[in-house]
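Problem: given the chain below (166 residues), write out its structure.
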Amino acid sequence: MRFGSCLTRLPAAVALAVCLALAGGCAHREYFPGTTILRSEENRKIIQIVEEYRQRLMRRNVVGLLALASPRYFEDSGTPRSDDDYGYEGLKKVLEEQLPRVKSLRYDIEYRNIRVSGTQAEVEVFLDGSFEIASQEAGDRYRRVNDYHRFILDKEGDEWKFVSGM
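Solution.
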């Protein structure tokens, strides 16, 4: 007996309840709170690493931030020019020179999407933050950041490491 023919022999209310229960079971998915990102162990690990990045940034922990970056890290700064591109050593230099100058910092991340393809993860977020940076030449500068951003991570062994976007 086929499944569909079973339903035709049930009272209409019972058949409707069975269909709704079956449809709900297939359609129900669990998401991370406030997102449309499916709750999975891999996505949890990725979000945990990005949150660790945020916390280390807030603490201005250069050594901790560098520990999250892959030796293959590369940043193109979102421009077509190559003179502002840098790798892991450039990231280290930027962090060592700029983070100590930060006087105040607010940095919130809203997760928009996570795509995992093989050993690479693309994390789309919306950044909402502000910072004040000390500058002897032009006086202290204050800047707000409200923009979409993309972190790229590679899985190295059992760990996710940033390869772009820090």
